[in-house]
Amino acid sequence: MIRIGGTLASRPLSRCRRLYSHTPFDEYLDFSPGKPPLEPEDPARINHDPFDFSDIPIIKDESDLLSSGLTTPSNTLLNDTNLSMSSDSVLQEPITMTTKDFMKKLNIARSDQSFDEQRLKRFSLFLHTDTQSRQYNTRLQDIATIRNPLTVISEFNNPRLNLAIEKYVYDQMPDPLGNARSRRLVLYKNSPCVVIGKNQNPFREVNFREATIRGIPILRRFSGGGTVVHDLGNFNFSYMSSRQSFSRVEFTNALNNEINQFVGLDIGYDAPKFPLTTNDRGDIVSSNSLKKVSGSAYQVSRGKSLHHGTMLLKSDLKRLSALLKLTEKRKASIQDKSTDSIPSPVENLEMSDTLFQFCAAEAFKKLHPTDGIEDMVYDNLLVQGDSHILKLNEVNDLPEEVLEIQQELSTWEWTIGKTPKFQLIVDDDEFQYQITVEKGLITEIDSAEPELEKLVGFPFSSGKISHVLAEPLRSHVMWHVDSNTNYAQLGIS
């Protein structure tokens, strides 16, 4: 519908108000508690385990490794891996806290058990072993439907690729209701990018001008929650469980317990500088300053639940602030019912990547314990009891579906077109108009400028409407739409 004429003057634009109430949570769940799943359950379940490791021998020494046929004397990669598991290669005594004063200073509950230093060394070796000359290789599609606990560590830094891997793992995970041990953890870090929640309006959350100048991509993820800035100083985790056992704090509390035992220790890795706790909204914060270290977003669908979280280790906090800083005038010009982000003071944990990944893997394993047998490393796969850790660093390890999801995430239709209905309201001395946008398209114009009628049906993009209007109206509208954004520079096609 198009309304041209004096209708706008009949109600001052300054009186327009937001049409929704502010929620105390910045997360959004894709379901309403007590209601059935959004998608129907599939009663047909396949019990075959496509990746059963029960017949793989436990390798304890070099002679066993040779007799098993898994390697040869010339295979130095696996020989080095086997030698790293010997008791001579690690310290015999665990490092523990040494003074009661430091314990009192932390003022938090700590486990009586110290960390397993041998396990940390094995895990570090697994992360840093070159896998280019693989004898045995596990692809993601080979193990994605395993019924046992699985951790996937992506060494890719492409943000859209990592979100695609996360979605693929979630989709392929067997129904946890029928497979009690089916749980997942995905770990990855991204090159600099801005990630908005599934139900957010990027025009109200992101400084498009700043993102364009820096060439920083804008992405829309599949889960709810607020807008976050990622860079190589931030690690991401995705904990996947059942709908019935969904909890905002189950994994974060377990993760905090693992991280806190390393505070102040000298173990050859950058240890966390302060202990962590969880606030009443489920965010991980510093126990000392209460500043936010990790934010969360959630998704619940098809009998499964996903808890996505960030962890600020050594992030560029100034860049974070600039990309999310909008003027009050710009915020007021966008009227919608989308999910708002809730700004919070943030702080870096100053922890090493390796140590964080170890803590996350240990927290996951303790939530879902398995029979304790000796760890076995098969190139890009680490087997701990019935729990598996898969390391991804080659595109050939990925199924075609992941690449298709990655492509979908880069489209204008997904990133911008999925924005909830909103109005852009401009009221200044030069021009006054209101533009209604649905699914990324301009659907309605309310203005005394008849020329604006031409915009109906066009995408809400300065590049798409640049040839429609004449000056000076063209420059005015293009700037207020998206600050003359070149979407190709943001990775959006």
UniProtKB/TrEMBL annotation:
Pathway(s) of this molecule: Protein modification; protein lipoylation via exogenous pathway; protein N(6)-(lipoyl)lysine from lipoate: step 2/2
GO biological processes: protein lipoylation
Biological classification of the source: Eukaryota, Fungi, Dikarya, Ascomycota, Saccharomycotina
Listed Pfam families: LplA-B_cat (PF21948)
Domain BPL/LPL catalytic, residue spans: 179-368
UniProt protein name: Putative lipoate-protein ligase A
GO cellular component annotations of the record: mitochondrion
InterPro entries given in the database record: aa-tRNA-synth_II/BPL/LPL (IPR045864), BPL_LPL_catalytic (IPR004143), LipoylTrfase_LipoateP_Ligase (IPR004562)
Sequence similarity: Belongs to the LplA family.
Keyword field: Ligase, Nucleotidyltransferase, Transferase
SUPFAM superfamilies: Class II aaRS and biotin synthetases
Physiological role: Catalyzes both the ATP-dependent activation of exogenously supplied lipoate to lipoyl-AMP and the transfer of the activated lipoyl onto the lipoyl domains of lipoate-dependent enzymes.
One GO MF term attached to the UniProt entry: lipoyltransferase activity
Keyword field contains Cytoplasm: no
